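Design a sequence for this backbone.
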């Protein structure tokens, strides 16, 4: 059973996945109409992110309380029984998911106008936005998740 404050984000992901599967598998007559699939899926991803930003602190404040600065930044918890070095390596994998897809505009560059400039801008800004969102998520987890 999920904690009550996680239910909001959890319930957004399943309809989002269903809508994305339906929209990507339905035949669209033009590529111009496919941009609406992007808009809808981007909306659900941002909604999920915002619900996490709102739900985690709200649920933490109403249940067990926030961690202190010392607990958040200076303590570690090894609940796996694995060596500490292995957990340190795995901690990088937890944040690697943030950077997945930042290079997507480079892959579709041949279909864009003025690709030499716009593809580079897309990779640059998606990396910046992913970094900011990832930093906020990591800080959120450090203060809200109690082991």
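Sequence:
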């Amino acid at each position: 059973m999920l904690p009550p404050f996680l239910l909001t984000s959890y319930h957004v992901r399943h309809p989002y996945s269903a809508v994305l599967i339906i929209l990507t598998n339905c035949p669209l007559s033009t590529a111009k109409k496919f941009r609406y699939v992007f808009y809808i899926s981007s909306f659900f991803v941002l909604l999920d992110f915002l619900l996490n930003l709102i739900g985690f602190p709200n649920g933490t404040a109403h249940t067990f309380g926030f961690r202190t600065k010392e607990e958040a930044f200076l303590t570690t918890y090894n609940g796996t029984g694995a060596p500490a070095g292995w957990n340190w390596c795995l901690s990088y994998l937890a944040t690697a998911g943030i950077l997945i897809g930042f290079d997507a505009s480079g892959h579709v560059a041949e279909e864009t106008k003025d690709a030499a400039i716009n593809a580079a801008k897309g990779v640059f800004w998606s990396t910046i936005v992913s970094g900011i969102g990832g930093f906020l998520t990591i800080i959120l987890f450090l203060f809200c998740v109690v082991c």
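Residues 31-62 form the longest helix (32 residues).
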